[in-house]
């Protein structure tokens, strides 16, 4: 029995040693993949995480706010824009300024949820669009039923961005990050229904107010339960961008 206890202790020690070696190896390998440096402590930006989160609060005229949060999509093309801007200042769209940065909120009635792989830049074509609710373009009917109703393919959300009744894309109030990692910045914009009942079901974080523009980039989009606002109703959109570095 004593021999068994010794052997078991050795086995536990061996397992613990192997687990430790695996964890260290994973850490070093992860650092090398992220930074090209085998010393994971030797690079200030070992990990950088860009994450956008969404919330909307709808307030009927004279009523109380009704809020909901939903999972959003960060587009691959939007992330590529940010990466090129940081690494080479050559993102290929408008020059970053007060009128060209990700502090603009756009709205859409499109209920079709976007996917990260849909192209979200430039003017609207069959394959791409920087407009809110039109990521991936307008190609195809996006139907089903044994290929009937799918003429032209399955590309894009095939929706439209809202531009009237008080829902045109506009700059939000920005709270910047400060201090140590992790931090969050916010973009907050309140829309007021101005002239007619309007249904909204999607919000986007974009780089400029003008839609249908070659310089438009849609960074992220979120769909939520459709809301029909009446004249005087408001909806507050909050985009929270989380930054993590080490």
Describe the 3D structure.
By secondary structure, the chain is an alpha+beta fold. The protein has 2 domains: 1-45, no CATH class; 47-245, no CATH class. 19% of the residues lie in helices and 30% in strands. It contains 2 helices and 10 strands; from the N terminus they run H-E-E-E-H-E-E-E-E-E-E-E. It has helices at 2-35, 76-88; strands at 48-59, 66-70, 72-74, 104-108, 170-171, 173-175, 183-192, 198-206, 218-229, 234-245. Strand 1 and strand 2 form a beta hairpin. The longest helix is centred in the N-terminal third of the chain and has 34 residues, at 2-35. It starts with a helix and ends with a strand. 31% of the residues are buried.
**If strands are numbered along the chain, what order do they take across the biggest sheet?**
2-1-10-7-6
What is the SS-derived class?
alpha+beta
Helix content: 10-25%
Beta-strand segment tally: 10
How many structurally independent domains? 2
């Amino acid at each position: 029995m004593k021999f068994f206890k010794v052997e078991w202790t050795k086995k536990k020690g061996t397992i613990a040693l192997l687990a430790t070696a695996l964890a260290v190896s994973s850490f070093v390998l992860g650092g090398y993949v992220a930074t090209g440096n085998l010393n994971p402590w030797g690079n200030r930006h070992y990990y950088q995480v860009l994450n956008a989160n969404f919330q909307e609060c709808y307030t009927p005229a004279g009523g109380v706010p009704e809020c909901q949060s939903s999972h959003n999509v960060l587009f691959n093309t939007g992330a590529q824009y940010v990466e090129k801007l940081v690494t080479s200042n050559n993102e290929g769209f408008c020059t970053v300024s007060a009128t060209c940065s990700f502090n603009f909120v756009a709205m859409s009635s499109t209920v079709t949820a976007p996917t990260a792989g849909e192209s979200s830049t430039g003017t609207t074509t069959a394959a791409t669009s920087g407009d809110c609710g039109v990521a991936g373009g307008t190609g195809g009917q996006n139907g089903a039923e044994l290929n009937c109703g799918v003429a032209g393919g399955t590309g894009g959300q095939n929706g439209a961005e809202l531009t009237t009744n008080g829902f045109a894309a506009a700059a939000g109030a920005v709270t910047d990050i400060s201090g140590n990692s992790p931090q969050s910045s916010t973009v907050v914009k309140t829309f007021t229904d101005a002239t007619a009942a309007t249904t909204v079901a999607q919000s986007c974080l974009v780089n400029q107010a003008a839609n249908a523009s070659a310089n438009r980039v849609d960074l992220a989009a979120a769909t939520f339960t459709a809301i029909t606002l009446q004249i005087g109703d408001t909806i507050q959109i909050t985009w929270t961008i989380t930054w993590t570095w080490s």
